[in-house]
Amino acid sequence: MPRKSKAPTLVTELSNLIMLIGGSGRLADIVARAATQACGARVVEADLKTATTIATERRPFAMIVAKDIYEFGGPEFDALARDVSAELIVVPHTIQSAVLVALIVEAASKLA
Fold first, then answer.
1. Could you give the percent of the chain with pLDDT greater than 90?
2. What torsion do the CA atoms of 112, 105, 45, 70 make, to the nearest 10 degrees?
3. CA 55 vs CA 28, 95, 98: distances in Å
4. CB–CB of 48/77 below 8 Å?
5. What secondary structure letter does DSSP report for 109?
């Protein structure tokens, strides 16, 4: 008889999720590629209006925020990341993929 997991399916499903706030175009593409390369994570995008709802419902392990968006509301992003136990990664729109992969790997390593 198969063993049942002690962790709920929902928690298991959500543990490999990254949320991108306020990123689009090139940054969204880089985040999607870097998340896959770093740890096979899925990326969900949010805007300023939906970020809190998505973060609390989906519980990403990392939140990536474009630097210009972070400058607009830094303390709120810090608090949101703390509330959902996510690593906050603030990046410029010009970040290189290899650098972002390293940042995501570091955030994922804190999950254990």
1. 76
2. 100
3. 17, 23, 25
4. no
5. H
